[in-house]
Design goal:
five-stranded parallel β-sheet
């Protein structure tokens, strides 16, 4: 009797349908359109269902990836979303903005053949399928423990921690400085990459589980962490990295020079792109330069482009060293963003009214690798050039806001203003205080912040159970 033939590998990773560049560059609608049921099932069937799936090991929130993909392949979507949400309370968000190509997909067995499973796109599919059903399935909530936990900051870390602890029966209250929950999800990532209705939907799901929310509430000087500790058994700090970096070059105080934080907050949280329907005016810029090469720089440039400006990204290294996701770089290029590589801004030049009118730059060449492993950019002497513009957005990074550390005695802080916390538990130097996300690591990814929230939730639960 002959042996059964092995199943032939399907190396055809299904493409994500997108708006055409010539259309999307004129609107703020979501660029990626999502998989149809047929495409999702086809993609899911490509998964080899490895006995020892490495992809799970690279997931910061420990999702059973083969499990939910198998459910899609079998068209059992309700079990699939249940499997997914056992570990991830924000699947529609992660499916859109998590850098799966650097995590779970990077270690997929099919990666060797350049045909890894589209894990993130399948995650998004399940989350969107559930939303289309109109009614969310509620998870089991354990009996109330009567223990109270305060969460400072309603971003990805705080939301994940709150979702985990509420299911374990603890009372959770989130204190958010802005008027909406979501953190960087709501003020930082543009509508065309992450529709705010999706963030609001995920937040409402957590509130339906019993998470309490207090917005427009700044913890720091007026209401301190110490005062929260008098009312709550534990406090988690997930206040993010909201302090923008600048280059400290001449002209940064000119009108028209923005931080990425200010620019994106005006556009996203305050709906500047919908003026005058929303009362957040943005000057009608014609030529915009964005400094930096990460995802935030791409978000700023693609936003400015949609508002009608000729937009360029100025980056001191080459395309190969760009830290942004390849998908975002390609989208920006398709839409018409201009890239000035190996270029370093050295000063901004203003007009007689104090508005920026030009940027002076130096051309660079790549030298030996630096501590990041990337080749260090070296200035080319005598290569100064100027470019006309009427706005600059500086997107070179952020640090944690010093407000909470400054007014919290006994809280150890690192050299960059980040709160020092244990990587596995989130415990800080201050008793009954945990921290996680960008306030600890500096600006990083949504999924890493969520992973930190999950670890801290586990540690806080162990502590509360010991009382």
């Amino acid at each position: 009797m002959s042996e059964p033939q092995k199943k032939k590998l399907d190396l055809n990773r299904r493409k994500m349908p997108k708006q055409k560049p010539e259309v999307r560059r004129h609107n703020f609608d979501e660029v990626a359109l999502g998989y149809s049921i047929e495409t999702a099932v086809e993609e899911a069937k490509r998964c080899l269902q490895c006995k020892k799936p490495k992809c799970v090991l690279k997931c910061p929130v420990e999702i059973d990836i083969p499990g939910f993909i198998k459910c899609i392949a079998e068209k059992d979507f309700s079990t699939g979303i249940r499997t997914l949400k056992e570990k991830n309370c924000l699947p529609a968000i992660c499916g859109r903005v998590c850098p799966q190509e650097e995590q779970c997909e990077e270690i997929c067995v099919l990666q060797k053949k350049g045909a890894q499973i589209a894990i993130g796109r399948l995650e998004r599919f399940l989350a969107d399928w559930e939303a289309d059903q109109g009614e969310l399935e509620m998870p089991e909530i354990l009996s109330p423990s009567r223990r109270k936990v305060a969460v400072v900051g309603g971003g990805p870390a705080g939301l994940t921690l709150a979702g985990d602890l509420i299911k374990l029966g603890h009372q959770v209250i989130i204190f958010e400085a802005l008027h909406k929950l979501g953190g960087v999800l709501i003020y930082g990532i543009p509508e065309f990459r992450l529709p705010k209705a999706i963030v609001n939907r995920e937040v409402e799901y957590l509130k339906s589980l019993g998470v309490e929310v207090v917005t427009d509430y700044v913890v720091g000087k007026t209401r301190t962490v110490d005062s929260l500790l008098q009312e709550f058994e534990a406090v988690f700090i997930g206040s993010g990295a909201g302090l923008p970096w600048f280059m400290n070059i001449p002209g940064e105080n000119l009108n028209g020079v923005y931080s990425a934080n200010e620019y994106l907050t005006r556009m996203n949280l305050m709906k500047g792109f919908l003026f005058p329907q929303f009362h957040t005016p943005i000057k009608d810029h014609k030529k915009v330069a964005v400094i930096g090469g990460g995802n935030v720089a791409m978000d700023c440039a693609r936003t400015a482009l949609r508002l009608g400006a000729e937009t360029r990204i100025i980056y001191r290294r080459s395309r190969q060293e760009l830290p942004a996701r390849l998908e975002e770089i390609e989208n920006a290029e398709e839409e018409g963003v201009i890239f000035d590589f190996l270029t370093l801004p050295i000063r901004y030049i203003g007009d007689e009214n104090g508005w920026v009118k030009e940027i002076e730059c130096l051309k660079m060449k790549l030298g030996e690798p630096d501590s990041s492993g990337r080749r260090r950019p070296v200035p080319i002497e005598g290569s100064e050039t100027t470019l006309p513009l009427d706005a600059v957005v500086c997107a070179i990074g952020n640090s944690p806001n010093p407000l909470i550390p400054t007014h919290t005695p006994g809280l150890e802080v690192g050299k960059n203003g980040n709160i020092v916390a244990d990587e596995e538990t989130g415990k800080t130097s201050k008793e009954r205080v945990w921290a996680g996300g960008d306030v600890v690591t500096g600006a990083a990814t949504v999924i890493l912040a969520m992973g930190a929230g999950r670890k801290a939730a586990r540690s806080i639960h162990e502590y509360l159970c010991s009382l």
